[in-house]
Amino acid sequence: MLELKLGWQSLRNNKQLYLPFTLATSLLIGVFYIFQAIINNDSLAKIPTASAINSIMQVALVFISLIIVVFMFYINNIVAKQRNKELGLYSMLGMTKANLFFLVLGVDVCLFGFSLVLGLLIGLSFIKFVLLAFVKLLDLKLVHLTVFSGQALLLTVAFFLAIFMALLLVDLAKLSQVRPVELWNATKKGERLPKNSWFTKLLGLAGVATLIGGYYLSVITKPNASVITTFFLAIILVVIGTYALFTSASIFFLNLLKQNKNYYYKRNHFITVSGMLYRMKQNGVGLASICLLCTASIVALVATSSLMAGKDNQIKQSAPLDVSITSKKITPATCKKTQELAAKYKVTLINKKSQRISHLALANIKAGKLKISQDANTANYEVLTLPLADYNRVEGTNYHLKNNELLVYATDKKVKLKQLQIKGKNYRVRMLSEYKYRLGDVATLTGLYLIAPDAKRAQSLLNIPLNETYSFDLKGTDQAKKNYSQAASQQLRGRNSENLVTTKVEVSEIMNQFYGGMLFVGLMLSVTMLLTTGMIIYYKQVSEGYADRARFKTMQQVGLSLAETKQAINSQVLMVFMFPIVVAAIHLCFALPALASVLKLFSMYDLKLLLIVAVTMLAILIIIYLLIYSLTTKVYRRIVNAD
């Protein structure tokens, strides 16, 4: 058929438009298949953190799906706009709308077919390497994940088939509503000059106010149960503020530059400002999208990398010794069983520690008064008590306390207390800098350990009974220690689970899996967002290149040299595409306080580590961004014939 022949010719003649679209879509199809293959892998059900990892993966998949849908509609709109001139020519040469429908259908089917086949090949080819990385990050020793998943394949095909059907319907609907001459002139039609109206100014001010509101919420966020909700509200405000800022404040700024005659009526400035001003409405949305994608990718990487980097410290906090047993009463039978298992698995029990400690209680401290709280949303401390003799014994110290004195250890080093009132009684506080063998540290909030002169006072402080603990390290081979820990976890709990047994092996396994899964998701999300960012920048350069080609040719005919053309292009492109990365860096700076509060929920207290990770990841993002900018600028110059 003539339509199919012309469609194939169109694909060949417009490689600059269709090839990047096909490659980007194929990569997204591959990423989508890999996520589906992992989520639908039955082997994952065998690991302890399977449900948590699966939930994280599903949330990430929903986010990736939204990115894919928005990206494909955005890019398809640009591609369709560029091919309208070709369709208009065919229409004026005698082709009917029905012929054009079949031509567009043929092009879209070819694009879908190529993209789907290539994407599935990419997914099936790289799934093994990705699964190896997944297994390595989660430290899965005995789990063998299936490479091929028929269910994942069907879900991937169905999802992208639905997207391509929607794109095809949109293309055909637009085609049915326009006349041939409109198609021919569509690519020549630029954006209308945006007016510096009161509405634009009002929208700009609203954007700035919303952005400041999001920043404020991020800075004041506290590490309590409502931190996630507050953080998401801050994200929503920043998203709204960013779009308003880029679409309105940018127009206002460009109009200010235009009004400055000393600046505007210079050759390079005139070309840059006038060119940007006519298309700023389109540019504003695109640049805001680029900025937010960069911000989201860097925040995801910083959060997950910080968790992974702080994992060893958290393992040490959660399990200071290899095995810990907590019970109302540690019986001789329990101690005897620990020795029997040691003989059986050929390990030696060393560094034995025993102490009494209470369950944790939620509390608030205001104006030096400690009050027990039942509301996790308003509480800011998790408080535990223990006798001085037990602290001195496990830590090897020799502190002495009067009846009105307390030793206090806080997991947050910023906490400094001198006086503390509990149940109407005032205590003089002496802060401790170290509590190496602390137990019961649940780090949703700041942990506060109150050490009283004796067991009776330790129990009466919060009216919570004291539990007994027996902890020790293991000496032997790694395999022997692992075998002992697994046996102890099963056999020392007792028939009625009266003993709580915590082993460093189990804690390490769970944290390796959970944080490894988080890092894997963060990496995959970042790769997806950076891929879409690169493609958005590329197609913005392509669409603007075609729009600017005639303008630059005209200016070259009246005396603009090739060198001056290149200089004007570099100035314009640099001005446009540096805004998003600069604003993304500012977003990251204001996101760090909220991010630190969220990470405290996972016992990640090291602010220095968070800053190091943030600076490193931001530097990597800037390098990648500049590389994308450099490559796409060359494409722009080729289109306007400046190379």
UniProtKB/TrEMBL annotation:
Pfam (any one): FtsX
Keyword field contains DNA-binding: no
Record's keyword annotation contains Glycoprotein: no
GO CC list: plasma membrane
GO biological process assignments: transmembrane transport
InterPro entries attached to this UniProt entry: ABC-4_Integral_Memb_Prot, ABC3_permease_C, ABC_permease_BceB-typ
Transmembrane stretches, start-end: 21-39, 59-79, 100-127, 147-170, 198-219, 231-257, 285-308, 514-539, 573-595, 607-628
Annotated keywords: Cell membrane, Membrane, Transmembrane, Transmembrane helix, Transport
Top-rank taxon, per record: Bacteria
Domain ABC3 transporter permease C-terminal: start-end pairs: 59-168
Cellular localization per UniProt: Cell membrane
Membrane topology: Multi-pass membrane protein
Family: Belongs to the ABC-4 integral membrane protein family.
Protein name: ABC transporter permease
Phylogenetic lineage: Bacteria, Bacillati, Bacillota, Bacilli, Lactobacillales
